[in-house]
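Justification of resources, computational component.

The compute hours requested in this renewal are based largely on the per-chain cost of generating structure records like the one below. Each record pairs the submitted sequence with a full structure-token output. That output is archived, and it is also reused by downstream analysis tasks.
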Amino acid sequence: MNVLLATDGSKDAIHAAQFLSTLQCKEPISLTVLTTTYAPDRIGGTQSQAWFPEWRKLEYERVTSHHNLLRDLLEPLGSKTHFVHVDGAAAHEILKLAEQIDADLIVLGACGHSAVGRILLGSVSDSVATHATCSVLIVRPESEDANTEPGTCRITLAYDGSESSTAAVDELQHFDWPQCCSVNVLSVVTAPVLLLSEYPVLLDQHNEVAVDEARKKGEQLVATLAGCVAQPTAQVATGEHIGETIIANAAESDSNLIVMGDTGRGFLGKLLLGSVSKYVLRHSTTSVWISRHHRKTSDVT
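The structure output for this chain reads:
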């Protein structure tokens, strides 16, 4: 499995590396650690400035020190690790290297140096998650008042029966999860609205059928996950906004990771679930794993 860890030396980047170090893949991991520097020499005439050589030296020392820290931090993975330092725009360089190494997963912090607050998603993370062709794990540090025990993994798996969410389940099964790990399979059902007049009418009967179908699929999935996760459960939630419902339920269950596919079919087609993925990615206060495992599978077949 080819994994790319994008880091900039920030606290969020360190949290991402710590999270990655806890993952135990069933197959060997080839890990590439990338640090990108947006060098001021890209501004015309900078290299001729007296301060530039000293800045370059200090930046090299900073990145080297950071990579040494990560080397020790990532040792539990037992993987072959390659460290890369390049100049350029961060998102562009991350996506380019991911293509070059045929990455299966990109891991990075939510905000980095450009953070405006814990909830907001940084522009680099947003761009990478949106444009990457492989799975992306955006790591957010847990809040100080989180009820989750240290080292405990609580996963909310957003599932709608689509190809991408089914492949996300398969991707989870590529890892050995600890006994303390729990997975809640969450299916969200929205009630269709029939606009017969100026007053919308909820089709409750259809909604009951959808809830029943979602519950059955969730229970079947729990049986599948029982082989790799000690505590799988299934839940069906209803709500007007799928993304908000996923985030709310993840918060209620004290989840520290949301896993979901990047696209799906659902009631209103692929566009809707694509927008749901973006909404969860941008508004969740917990880590989010956007699975594109189905794309890799399609490429192989």
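The longest helix spans residues 52-73. The chain has two domains: 1-141, 146-301.
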